[in-house]
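Subject: Sanity check before I submit

Could someone independently write out the structure tokens for this chain? I want to compare against mine line by line before I put it in a report. The sequence has 128 residues.
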Amino acid sequence: MKIQEIAFTCYPVTDMERARSFYEGALGLKATMDHKMDDGAHWVEYDIGEGTLAIGSVTGMNPSQEGCSAALEVDDFDAAIAELKEAGVVFNFGPIETPVCHMAFVRDPDGNSIGIHKRKSNPDFASE
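---
Independent answer below. Compare away.
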């Protein structure tokens, strides 16, 4: 098997309307696919650059505060953090600065962790 790329990342959600309000409102994402299935499952995708972030209300997929997280690269880290704070979004940790980036992690309405990230153009690596 040869893996070529990550096809998508998905966050399980319990209330699609509430989740979409967060992802499309607080994060400003635009839905590129919205699919309701016959079994009651509901799947929404957001294309971001070459990747796709999905949210799904699907039997067998449950939100978790301890699960994986995706980090979204932003153009203006400070402005993004200010917007999220103004919107009352819950921060899990940060903002922090590392030698290579700035980042913070927020929670969606189901408690899933989502990173807000900005790479540094000239990372400051410690010399060995």
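---
OP: Matches mine. For the report I'm noting this point. DSSP finds two helices and eight strands in the chain.
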